[in-house]
Amino acid sequence: MDRNIRSRLAIATICGKWREIADEYGVAIELDQYCQAENMDGEKGERVEAEIRKSLTKYRSFVLHAPFNELFPAAIDPKARNLAMERLRQAAALAMSFGIKKMVVHSGYVPFVYFKEWHVPRSIEFWTEFMSDMPADFEIAIENVLDDEPDMLAAIARGAGDPRIGLCYDAGHANIVSRQSQDRWLETLAPYLKHLHIQLRAKKIF
User: pTM of the full predicted structure?
Assistant: First the structure.
């Protein structure tokens, strides 16, 4: 395992100073341009893609964050589920065209809309189907957003039984919506973690 911390950190492009930070510290890049699905389409999509390809020539490694607005993998309406599958596969195709082998996706859990007993098996079904025709070296990390505890995500990763399907722990999201401790989240998700989202406020991070 590479124990050089810089080689295992990525700065998200949602940060206004991501280029300066990447240049100074030599960290990887998490591409957040496609969090908005419209950035994959038409003339705007062409402009965004051209900008990303320029970055590919300068920075060493990347993670792609998939779109998430109105995309619900465990949707009750089959057409809503199909939209999520279509958009996420579109994002995966872009990731692979860039040579990116890891994609962060949102869990899509909505409290008071999806019962957890529904969300877990439907999510396992969705992500298993999604990954069924993906390359052996392509992986996803399912991120907590409105999830109020870690057990549901762990159950999804465990139930999928595919080492390419892992988890992304977002500490900020958990702090907002969950009463569970950070230790509890990390201990539960640890066997399946592929990515972390943390926010650093310190002026000096190394």
Answer: 0.92
